[in-house]
Structure formats: structure tokens, C-alpha cells
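Quick log. Single chain, no ligands specified.
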Amino acid sequence: MEKNLKKKVVYTLLGLTMLSCGAISSKVNASVEKSKVDEFSNLLDLSATPTQRTHGVYDTNYFNNFSDLGAWHGYYQPDKNNKELLGGFAGPLIIAEEYPVNLAASLNKLILKNKKTGEIYDLSQSSELELDYYPGRLEQKYVLEDVTINLSLIFVSNRTALIQTRIENTGEKPLSLEASWTGRVFDNVIDGSDVISTGANLKAQENDIQVQFKKIREKWSYFSTEEMQYTIHHADKISTKIDGETYTATAEEINLPVGKIYETKTTESYTFTKEELETEQAKFDAYTNNSSDYFKKNKNRWQGYLDKTFDHKEVKKYPEYQNAIVKAIETLNTNWRSAAGAFKHDGVVPSMSYKWFIGMWAWDSWKADVAVVGYNPELAKNNMRALFDYQITSKDPVRSQDAGAIIDAVFYNQNEERGGEGGNWNERNSKPPLAAWAVWQIYKETKDKDFLKEMYPKLVAYHNWWYSNRDHNKNGIAEYGSMVSDAQYQKDDNGKLIKDKNGNYILDEEAVIEAAAWESGMDNATRFDKEGSGQGDKGVKVFENKNNGKTIGYSINQESVDLNSYLYAEKGFLSSIATELGKRKESKEYKKEAEKVKEYIQSKMYDEKTGFFYDLQISENGSKTKLLVNRGKGTEGWLPLWAKAATESQAQSVKKNMMNKDMFNTYMPFPTASKDNQKFSATHYWRGPVWLDQALYGVEALENYGYKHEAKLMTEKLFLHAEGLMGEGPIFENYDPLTGRGLSTKNFSWSTSAYYLLYKNSLLGNDSTTQSAFDIE
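-> predicted structure:
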């Protein structure tokens, strides 16, 4: 290798002869060719200076991080301007069961010393300083006067990362070097105005540096136990000194001839239990001794992701979109969490960047699955199972009346109702019925009929629950609502439930309405404003749903057009699944039921004057209805087109609204409230910002009725006008429709999933995710 090489060299460690730990060599092996994985670098800015305060505005991490394989920790790249962090991967970020926190600014940083001169190499003075993020790995390169240092990091399991360090003598004289690693663990985290001790302390044991924890249960900020451990394992012999929260581990002297390379490896593992730790410890030697195999396996896995994604004849027509799609895969994989705590299966959380999002929500997971199956089918299937693991049954000790229901969200810790201590687990409500949609997309991709057989009875039970527990007047049209829960009753100042004179708990209508809005997924949408809007609108009221005199749940007084469009589509997916499984009678029954729902949507939920679909307000006995045109247009209005439940003429009118620049065809198209809605707010969550799931359904709605040109136009605007998407910015939770500015949290899974599907199905192909069992009539 040439002295002081100036040309950029990407050390994947796969193109180099892999050596035993601490070995010295100069050989280069080019048997592993550069692949498509190497063409995508730094699609997301990972530079960071981590502090004890992990989260800033909107409880979102100041910085973007990298994780993989479902690990519960991740890494940043150091900010180039912070010389104190150079020589190691910044962080790590760990998830304290439910809350992401920085464990350190840098916990395993290399310090290289020339023993002859006593000089410590100043990495900030490198003539080449490269900090790169490739799909599935992090790389660092430092070129100094007589040495070149390369660091590479990949994940080798759902608990362990592998770091490979290479030091090359590029000078004219042999070198005598001292390599040491140092780090300082944060002993507390800062959350708002609270300073919380992590109980973290350092311990050295042979070639390991261990971060040990204490049992801390800060319900809304931080969880740890005495079994938790973060372990740095060195493959080579080291001697370690610990001073409070700081350690220094020093290797044996390195005598490095001219042109030779010294190579060593370390692993970093974050484990929750003794069993997890023992499992990883048993693999440490395999990880380090067979590092070349692991790096090759990692690269092949990621190459497989890209091969499956870009396996289409039209790919060359849209090269400018590929960076965004690779970033989408990276984002989804960083949000991948493996089974741990109450999670029985791997799944994808909404965002590792947001304090409150390290859980699995029903429709979030299902939206992620529809994209993930395109490159990692097993993860998609397990993500489906993760929510259905907690499907309510008739034998449930807490809410047997909700048999079939899928609860809103599950977390590492169950809630108090289940004997747990987590506050984020939610059983107050469900989420829109998109499970069968996701299962059918998984089957289309995998042809796994056993998976269909596994999921079908569960999907049927969930579908039926909507009609047993959310159809107040039993007319076959459902409403959003809430489950029976202590959260729906009034409480005094001490948090105790209040009873009336008859000893019954007093219902808190606002709490039920809140849960119903959560159940819709559109938490603060204008159509759920309690006070209503305009003449004759009674506002949102609560109905009690009973079975044999027993309260089984609550509904609000409106039949929502999106909910019943989803249910219509679900009948289509269930019909298709039943046909695949040879259940032809059940398939026909779903078609029969669907006809009634379609007729109701077309005749009761459509307004001829405005050419749009709306929710329908109902009286308690169902005798009176009011079409809620007065509450303005929202994204729910094109869901009948996505489900193929609208007539051709209705679709034409809805299309005109969707393409109107004063309504939904904004700079960043498809705001959740039409621009002419009197309550439109461009940056207020579901009252105007663009949510990519609804945008995806909007594009597919147009495609379903033959408006291909319009669908492509809107798709291109969604890509080209989103802040940072085509550059190195993160994918946001939602976007300002007037400017394209990213809003709320970042690195958001369902936005990412929507972009992946828009690229594969709308730009490259002509494949909708909507149901195909029922034709448009």
C-alpha cells in the first residue's frame, strides 16, 4: 500500500485478509468485490456530541443513531469538530427498557501513542478524516503522518456489536506503539428538569470492561435492574484501570514494521438478563475469531435487502430516488427491536429517536410490515405476531368482554392492570383494522400458506370484535370508541375514582372521546372536536355499549367513514385469505357483508354538493343522522376510494378535491385537514400536517380509479418537497403541507414504510396494496 495514500479507500474489512486478533500483516485480498452496499454512504447524518440530556424539542433525540438486528442499543458518529470524541463511535445510546438514553459520550475510544517519542496521535489533525455510514455498518478513517487508522462497526446479534480496528504503518520507520481505549460512563441522565441517577458503575474483569446498573424504576423516564449490563470485550490481552466513572484499558506493546497492519477486535453487548449475557459471552470468541465471516455475512444480508428492493426493470428510470429508499431501509432496521421483556417476537417500533416510541402500536406495526416484507419477510411476520401475542381472548382475566380485540400498544413492561409497572402500555382502545391488509401483503410476497393459516382465525376474531363491541345500533356500521377501563372514569384530586350516590363510578366523557380519537389513529383531528362545528351539530357524545345488560365498551356518536372503509377493505382481504385456504363459504359471506357496507358508504356518507365523503353523526337509537360536512374535509374522505367502495362518479368528484390546490394539492400534498377547512393548521398534528400513510392511501385511491397521471404527480411531490428526504436528513413523522418542513419526531417508521411502498408500487410499478376481492361498480 502506497505511503500516505491520499485517494479515499473504503475499508470494508471484507477486501482484506482477516487475521487472528492482534496479528500483523500487509496482505490485501480483493476476493470480495465492492457491491451496491458500498454505493450508498452517509444518507443520514449521524454526527453527534451525546450528553446526559438525550432528548430536546418534542422529546426527540438531538441526533440520529444507527442500530441493526433488533439490538436495544445504537451508535452515533462523533462530531468532527469535537476532537475529544474522535477515535471511537459516539455513545452508545441504550434503551432503558422503554426510554432511550445516552450511556456515554464515548465509551470505547482508541488512544494511540508513539512510545519512542511519547507523542499521542492527534486524530483531529488527520490529513484525511472520514466518518462514514454505509448500509449496515459504520466506518472511520484517520490518515496521519506515519499511521492510518481504520475502525469498522457492525452488529453481529440482537445484543452485540463487533468493532474491528486496523492500524497501518505508512511511514518510513518501524513504529513502537501503545494502544489504549478509554471511556466515561454517565452516572445520571437529564430528563426535562429531572436529574436521574442511572446507578451505572464500571468494573474490570480480565479482558472485559463492564457497566453495571442498579434497580431504578423511574416510571416516566428510566428503568434499569441489577441484571442489566453493558459489556466491552477485548479479544487481546489488556490491563484496565478504573477511576470513578472513567476507565483506561491498555494493550500490550505493538511493534509495527513499515507497511504492516496491526488488527484487533472488540465487542460491545447490551443485555437485560443474566441469560442474555451468558448467551453473548459464550459467543465472544466466535465473534472476534471469525470477524471476516461476520463482516461478509453482514454485507451479504444488506446486499440482499437492496437486491430485493431494486429488482425491477424500471429502477434505472428513477436513480434520484434510490438514496431515499436505502435510507428508508436503514431507518426501519434501526427501529427494529428484538424480543425482550413483554415482547415475545421481534418488531418495529415507531422511532428509536423519540422518548415515548419504544413500543409497538397496532397500525404502526402493520404499516411497517407492508414495507418490511419487501426485503425481510421474517421480520414482517414476527412483527405481526408481536401484537397478536396479546390479542384478548374470552378467558382474559381483565377484559374478557373484548375477546378478539387487539390492544393499542404494547411495551417492554405491561401495565398495572396486568400486574406490571409500565405506564405506556395501553388497553383503553384498539387501532384501525389494517391487520388483514398487512397479512395479505405478507402472503403476496412470501406465498407462506402456513402463515395464512396461523393468522386467519385471529384476523376473523379481530374483525368480528368491531361489530360486537363498536356497533352501537347494530346496523353493521361501526364507530370508534373505548374499552372498559378505570381511565374512563372521573377521579378526585388524589387520583381516586369517584362514585355516585348509587356506588357506581362516574363516566368521564372526555376521556372516552380521547380514547376514541386514539382508536382512529388521528388523535386530534377536527372531526373529533367535542364541541362539534356549525348549526345542528350536537358535538361528540358517548354511547354505552352493552351485552346482556353488561357494559362491554363505549362508542362515540359518529360512524366514521375511514373506519368503515377499512372494514370494507378488510372483508375483501379476509375473503381472499379464505379463498386461499379453501374456505369458499366464508369467502362468499364476506362478499355479501361487504355489499351492505359499500351501499351504506355510498348512500349515507357521501355529499353530492361538495363531492366528498364524511363521517355520519347518529342518534343513540340510530333513527336520526347528520352528515358532518360542517366539520370540513379530511383525509378520511378518500378512504372509500382506497377501499374501492366508491362509485366511479363519486371518485371523480373526490379526485377534483384531492387535486385542488386550495384543498389537498398543497406544496407537500395531502394535508390531513383540507386547506379550506376552517380549523386547518399546517403544523398541528392531525389538523393539517401531511401524514405519509394517508398520503399513500391517497395515491392508491387515485390509481384505483384510473387517475395514474395524478397519482404519479402527487407521488413525485411527496418525495421532492419533503425536507431532507433526498439529502441526508431524517424521515419525519409528518410534514408541513405549505413548506415541506419536517414536523414532530424523526426517523419515523410508517412514513418510511409509505415512501418505500410509493417507490416500489407507484413509481416503479403499478401495484396497489388495496383489496382486490371486490371490483369497483
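Residues 408 and 430 are 4 Å apart (CA to CA).
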